[in-house]
Each structure stands twice: as C-alpha cells, then as structure tokens.
Amino acid sequence: MDTTLRTRVRAGDHEAFGDLFDAYARSVYNHAFRLTGDWASAEDVVSLTFLDAWRLRDRLDEEGGSLRPWLLGIATNVARNIRRAARRHSAAVARLPRDETVRDFAEEVAGRVDDAAQLALVRAALAKLRRAEREVLALCVWSGLDYAAAADALGVPVGTVRSRLSRARKKLAKHMEPPETRGQIRGDRTTAVRPLREGNR
User: Fold this and answer.
1) Which phi and psi angles does 58 have, rounded to 5°?
2) Can you tell me whether residue 2 is helix, strand or coil?
3) I need a labelling partner for 128 at 20 to 30 A (CA). Which of 8, 55, 118, 196 fits?
4) Cα–Cα distance, 141 to 192 (Å, whole number)
5) pLDDT of 60-73, one tens digit each?
6) What single string gives the DSSP state of each residue in 64-97?
C-alpha cells in the first residue's frame, strides 16, 4: 500500500495526500503532543507537517517502506520551529509593560489531564533532557520506530540514535521519582513514560 501511495504522493496526487493524512494524522498528532506538551501546538504541528510534506514531496525517495518515519521527521522539525517561535513570543511578552496582564493557560491545560500530578512529574523529567534526547525518545519509545527508521527521520546515524536513547532512558529513570521519595526503593519509575506504542504502519 505504501509503495503505491509513495508513488502517488511524489506525483502530486491530491487524493493520495488525503489518503496519507487519513493514515498518519493521528500518529503525527501524538508525536507532536509528546514533543510540545500542548494540544493546540500539536494541532499546529500536524497542519504544518502535511503542508511541508506537500511542498517536499519531490524529495521523497522513490523506493522505501512506510511513509510514517518521513512524516515524523518533518513533524520533529516543525515542532523545533514552533518552540523557537514560542521562545521569541515569550521574550516579547516579557518586555511588555508590567501593568499588562497575559492570560495563563497552564491550569486550563492541566485540567484536561486526569492525573495532573503525574503529568507534572513526567514533564519535569522530560524538561531535564536535551532536545535531541526528547526527540529520539518520542520517536523510538512512544512512536515505536526502530533505530534505523528514527535515524532516517532525524537525518543522523543509527549509532547516534542508540546513544541518545540510552542517555535519555538513564536520565528519566533518575528524575522520575518525586523529590520526597528519592533515595527510597520504588517500583518501576519509568512506567509513566511508556504509554502503549502506536503500531507501525
């Protein structure tokens, strides 16, 4: 299916792009949310990812398997750009006069999560990872790509993926304990960062 879809996408077939979106939009959205931690930003990443996919369709290799790694690689780059824009926006807001208030959406977002405390713990642990480590973790652990597919998506050697993932797992294991329980023996500390993998399509 993907070989035929790949050929049609490269040829600029609009119906093929509809099929591409139907097949992989959910996977791209999940990956984007794991990178951004924000529902609205994840939706923006999905839209921009498929726009970029259309723009970059002629660069798609003629031969290959699933188109999912290609799309997740594009989504990773889009998420980087959105983070840069958000940092610039935050810097601009910080320069506003002090009497102007800016709405804080943090509580609204947290309210949509059943276990806000656990989410905070996971996000705090993820924040301690380098960007490259978070990206590899999202691709290999949560999106279920193998090392080769993740390396292809990120444009780095397989060995780099392996080493980044190893460092990310060690750091998460260290930081996933709540501060008040560090030093005590606990169960599996990394359960919270191992949701069900999405199937490889």
Assistant:
1) -75, -10
2) helix
3) 196
4) 12
5) 888 888 999 999 99
6) -S-SHHHHHHHHHHHHHHHHHHHHHHHHHHHTS-
CA–CA–CA angle 142, 187, 110 (5° rounding): 50
Helix (H, G, I), strand (E, B) or coil at 183: coil
- Of the candidates 49, 45, 33, the one whose C-alpha atom is nearest the C-alpha of residue 142 is 33
Instruction: Give rounded-to-5 percent helix, strand, coil for the chain.
Output: 70, 0, 30
Name which of 59-68, 129-138, 164-173, 188-197 the model is least confident about. 188-197
Cα separation of the two ends of the chain? 10
In angstroms, rounded to a whole number, what is the distance separating the alpha carbons of residues 139 and 71? 11
Give the pLDDT score at 94: 67
Contact 31, 75 (CB under 8 A): yes
**What value, to the nearest 5°, has the Cα angle with vertex 35 and ends 33 and 17?**
60
* CB contact at 8 A, 45 and 32: yes
- Collect all residues with Cβ–Cβ distance below 8 Å to 60 and sequence separation of at least 6: 6, 9, 10, 67, 70
Question: Tokens 């031969």 appear where?
Answer: 63
What is the spatial distance between Cα 17 and Cα 83, in angstroms, rounded to a whole number? Answer: 26
Query: What are the CA-CA distances from residue 2 to residues 39, 112, 151, 156 (Å)?
Result: 28, 35, 20, 23
* Residue 190 scores a pLDDT above 50: no
